[in-house]
Amino acid sequence: MSARIAVVAGAGGGLGRAVVSALRTANLRVVAIDRNEEALRVLGPEVHQIAADLSTPEGAKSALARVEAEVGAPSVLVNTIGVCTFGGVMTITPELLRQQVDLNVGAAIWLTQAVVPHMQQLGEGVIVHTAAEAGVEPTDGLTAYSVSKAATAHLTRVLDVELRPLGIRVNAVLPRLIATEANKAVLPPELLATASTPEAVAGAIALLVSEEAAAVHGALVPVNGW
């Protein structure tokens, strides 16, 4: 039996790299996609890499078509794409809101649209999106981010209703804070002290895509550190 093919979107980021490693350890064949080609090279030649911008419907559809042509039809999609900008409601600008929504919600929608036909071809599939604890619990100073992640969380529940009849499971993880290298560079140690490691979040994602979680649908899974 051939290995399941898993697409990791945003694979060049701190969480994305950890997810690639976790899924490979679970014997999935991983395709790593990121718009940063240099960041993808860090993953090594044994990981199939596609440089693409997934923030538009056209970009996502083209990238997933390449996955099928170059590797095969994917049965797993893990979306780790996201951006966080600090600021309360009085500092939001149209540009900032557009950025948060386009990357935190738009990419999840376009990736789902792009991958579902390939999963239908297989008759099964698993999708895991990355929302955030701030999307379900009020968080001061992260207004645009929180609202966009709330939309991602609710999108996950909507997708469960729409895609479960097609044999596709959809869930999301809700990290509080992840101790990626990027976050370590800008956040104080006292805040990072209770953050989850990228590997811990990746472990939760690996469980959600596994057969052990076959009965888990539409779940919003907290991954909130220590």
From TrEMBL:
Q: Which CDD domains does the annotation name?
A: SDR_c
Keywords in alphabetical order: Oxidoreductase
Q: Name one Pfam family in it.
A: adh_short
Q: Does the keyword Hydrolase apply?
A: no
- The organism's superkingdom is given as Bacteria
Would you identify the family this protein belongs to, as annotated? Answer: Belongs to the short-chain dehydrogenases/reductases (SDR) family.
Identification of the protein by name: SDR family oxidoreductase
User: What is the scientific name of the source organism?
Assistant: Streptomyces spiramenti
